[in-house]
Amino acid sequence: MKNRFLWLLSAGHLFTDLNQGALPAILPFLIAEYNLSYAAAAGLVFAASFVSSIIQPFFGYLADKSSKLWLIPGGILLAGCGLATVGFLSNYWLIFAAVTVSGIGIAAFHPEAARMANKVSGEKKGTGISIFSVGGNAGFALGPVIATASLLLWGLKGTLILIVPAAIMAVITASQAGKLHEFQKLAQKAGGIRNEAEEKEEWAPFSRLTVVLFCRSIMFYSLNTFLPLYWINILQQSKATGGSALTILFTVGAISTLFGGQLSDRFGYTTIIRIGFVVLLPFLMVFNMVSNVSLATLLLIPIGVALFAPNSPMTVLGQKYLPNRLGLASGVTLGLAVSVGGIAAPALGWFADNYGLPHAMQLVTYLSIVSAVMAFTLPVPQSDTNTAGKSSV
């Protein structure tokens, strides 16, 4: 395992997904400034997600054909620059377009970066992908902090600050692209990376895994979009406190992602996925019943653990189901399947407008039931079964 490259890719993941984490924290300021409805605000999450969900598998397909490392710095820069312009726009559809540009950058980054993370992880792919994934979770946690602080200090034009981390990380990753390329060539030449082309692809289990990812994505985006608004409008807290709730959730999530990957290498990917979704259900049910701010905040800890611990095991499992198409598998598990939550966000926003945020949050609980059931239909990948069989001979 090349930890130096893994942490570089993880840092790139952080500075890319920082923009996804910042967007929900920006929404209350846009609502206050332009009197947007919940549905209109959720539509901006849709803008960042829809293009990403459609394009990301395509970028993954291109990455499988031939390595395109320039997508990593290019994606980081585009993701930050798109969202940075939001505070300077007053027309809703121009804001929508700027957020869409950010989504394209996010789509460009993930498949190639995840494919490279798989390659440099060696045999400990759960741990390696968890290191890569924890960067994204950390970005979601850091995004609300940066966005909220900047907007409280400078108003909506404070979004400009998002250009700074994106530009810095784009330069750093671009400067290391040559070394990553050389490592890939040397590893292939030395036989350090096994030939996945001889392995069978398992499309049926991959499809069921995608359903689980769909459900998790909608749950994730529901919390990501509505948690600050829930804190402000239901629990009667400040905008800063609403952003802090997201930070707590994603900080716990970042830690849980790292441990989830390590545990999956030891106990199996499907085991960690099943445990996570089974544990998530009762805590979500209790969360929907409480009105005390302190208790609601404490519940974010087990919810974050249960929601994020299966994250990297699901990405690795998807790559193992499609060993010949790592980029495509990453594009689906990190793109299409994940972004479907953003696509569903406007519908959830409409539901919240008409029936209230508490009822919208209850929908998340129902989805956790589906996720838990579907998780038990996921088999151990054939590649792992074959490896276990060979080692026992």
Automatic annotation (TrEMBL):
CDD domains: MFS_FsR. GO terms for cellular component: plasma membrane. Its main location: membrane. The chain crosses the membrane at residues 40-62, 69-86, 92-110, 131-154, 160-178, 209-232, 244-263, 275-308, 328-351, 363-380. PROSITE patterns: MFS. It is a multi-pass membrane protein. The keyword Transport applies. Keywords: Membrane, Transmembrane, Transmembrane helix, Transport. It holds the Pfam family MFS_1. It comes from Propionispora vibrioides. InterPro entries: MFS (IPR011701), MFS_dom (IPR020846), MFS_trans_sf (IPR036259). This is MFS transporter, FSR family, fosmidomycin resistance protein. It is found in: Cell membrane. It comes from the Bacteria. GO terms for molecular function: transmembrane transporter activity. Residues 5-383 form the Major facilitator superfamily (MFS) profile domain.
